[in-house]
Design a protein that fits this description.
The chain is an all-beta fold. It is built from no helices and 7 strands.
């Protein structure tokens, strides 16, 4: 297995939701999700997480989160 130095983490984040019907506004709330991956980049605006590494050291499976959508980042032992 190829070694890398990216931290493994769980990202807890909220998504945007929109409706087009007659829903009660009090019952519409952004859902919370959890994503597990390696933190590739983290700054004030964006956190990028990757999940697949090939034999040449190239990462794929990138998810870019706007920092404002993130509730919590929990770093795991790797």
């Amino acid at each position: 297995m190829r070694k890398h130095k990216l931290p493994l983490a769980v990202i807890e984040w909220r998504d945007i939701i929109g409706t087009s019907g007659w829903e009660n506004p009090a019952e519409v709330s952004p859902p919370t999700f959890w994503t597990v991956g390696y933190i590739l980049k983290e700054d004030d605006e964006t956190v990028k997480v990757v999940h697949t590494l090939d034999e040449k050291g190239n990462w794929s499976g990138v998810t870019a989160f706007p920092s404002g959508c993130i509730k919590k980042i929990t770093r795991l032992l790797s």
